[in-house]
Amino acid sequence: MMSPSWWQPPLVLPYDPGPARETMRGILAIVTFAGLVLAGVAVYGLFLVNRAEDARSFSELVFTAMVALAGSVGGFYFGAAGRERV
Known about the structure:
This protein is an all-alpha fold.
């Protein structure tokens, strides 16, 4: 049986990972920033209840690591975005 003359097969576009990549980068940036904000709120809360020594040790262990992670995520994002434009 032959297909009608007006029928054409559906157009198949090649896979483009760009939009999914940008969505994932956005999600990672939001999660990293939320973790940074949460760590900051925790340090501030410890200072409010007069537990400065706990706040200091928490900030040395967690907050500094979160700042480094946020810097790495930002550097990776902007580094990859700059490379794609060239």
